[in-house]
Specification:
Helix 6 crosses helix 7 (134-145). The two termini are 30 Å apart. This protein has a 5-stranded mixed β-sheet with strand order 8-9-10-11-12, with helices on one face. It is globular, with a radius of gyration of 21 Å. It is of the alpha+beta class. It has 14 helices and 12 strands.
Length: 358
């Protein structure tokens, strides 16, 4: 949805994108603004408070904004990966902790239906496991062994709020879907691959692994091969795609787009050179917001707070090029930046500054 803004409703767009990475709570709003025509941020806020979308740890153990339907369908397939990724950070601290017992203790604490911060939840079980410390216990509880969501107002448009966690079952009124009986075909994994390719294909299995954090989904890919088409990229890697997926001509003009921090258009691939130069790759994991020019990362952007005046504070979108811009590119970046500034300020400012090219 970056070549042309879509008419999809925000809920359908979140579903199509397989969620939006959202550890920075306001970033998904920019991600949808860049992809949807006439996007109104209040609609996404209403979806969050109306429990149709949720903030949860899922792909890559990062916080994503996903539909309620997807967290229910996908969470069990991510369980083992989520546990292992927390253990990867705290293996020594959690060495003596039975994770199933920890999960049961956490559920007991949350049985009263009250949301809790990670620290509150960890302190509630720390008497039983005093050695690890509250941080390892808390991260394993909220991002590993328990399916949890972060409750609004965190993630609501233009609001700041701390993290309050609740069980998925408490917030959505039902347990996550259990994994089907394992026969090697990995039906949930198959659906993940289909959905990923619909949004981000053509892609290699390494790209699917980089996006999901799951170990390549070999059973799912093998079961799907008969319904996929294959290509080879410039490096000779096999790329998979859905047969009816859009594959625009390489000469199709790509308009300027402003992407939020950690957008999956970049992080959702193992080979990120399709969209960002190797020299700039570190920007994507550092959380820099980037500007696409002709479909590739060509600048970073940020918001410079305005000084108070009689008219109020007018923030400025500041664009920092990573390469030389032509006159027409600079004009197109400035025009789109003005639109972004107006969106971010609810129409109060349209200030943009494009700094000198390197």
């Amino acid at each position: 949805m970056l070549l042309e803004r879509s008419e999809l409703p925000p809920l359908d767009a979140v579903s199509h994108l397989c969620g939006l990475q959202a550890q920075e709570p306001q970033e998904p709003f920019t991600g949808l603004w860049s992809r949807l025509r006439g996007f109104q941020p209040g609609v996404l806020s209403d979806l969050l408070t109306g429990r149709q979308v949720v903030r949860t740890h899922l792909m890559r153990r990062t916080v994503h904004l996903v539909t309620a339907a997807d967290v229910l369908a996908w969470r069990a397939r991510h369980n083992a990966m989520l546990r292992q990724r927390v253990l990867g950070a705290y293996r020594r601290e959690l060495a003596g902790v039975d994770l199933d017992e920890l999960a049961a203790a956490g559920r007991d604490v949350l049985a009263d239906g009250e949301p809790r911060s990670m620290a509150q939840l960890a302190r509630a079980v720390a008497d039983r496991w005093p050695e690890p410390g509250t941080r390892p216990l808390g991260e394993m509880l909220v991002a590993g062994v328990l399916p949890m969501v972060q409750l609004p107002p965190r993630g609501v448009w233009r609001q700041k709020a701390g993290v309050r966690n609740a069980l998925v079952s408490s917030w959505l009124g039902r347990e996550i879907d259990p994994l089907p009986t394992e026969d090697g075909s990995d039906p949930v994994g198959q659906e993940l691959v289909r959905r990923y390719l619909a949004a981000y294909g053509p892609a290699a299995t390494a790209d699917v692994r980089a996006w999901s954090g799951l170990a390549g989904l070999p059973g799912a890919v093998a079961a799907l091969r008969g319904e996929l088409v294959t290509f080879r990229d410039e490096r000779g890697r096999e790329l998979l795609d859905l047969p009816d997926a859009p594959r625009p001509d390489p000469e199709t003009p790509a308009p300027v787009r402003f992407l939020p921090a950690f957008d999956n258009a970049i992080l959702g691939y193992d080979d990120r050179t399709r969209i960002i130069d190797d020299a700039d790759r570190g920007l994507s994991v550092a959380g820099s917001r980037v500007v696409l020019v002709d479909g590739r990362v060509a600048a970073t952007w940020d918001v410079e707070p305005g000084t108070e005046s009689a008219k109020g504070a007018e923030d400025t979108v500041v664009v920092t090029p990573l390469r030389a811009f032509s006159r027409s590119e600079r004009a197109e970046v400035a025009e789109e930046g003005e639109e972004l500034a107006a969106f971010l300020s609810d129409g109060e400012s349209a200030r943009v500054r494009v700094t000198a090219s390197p």
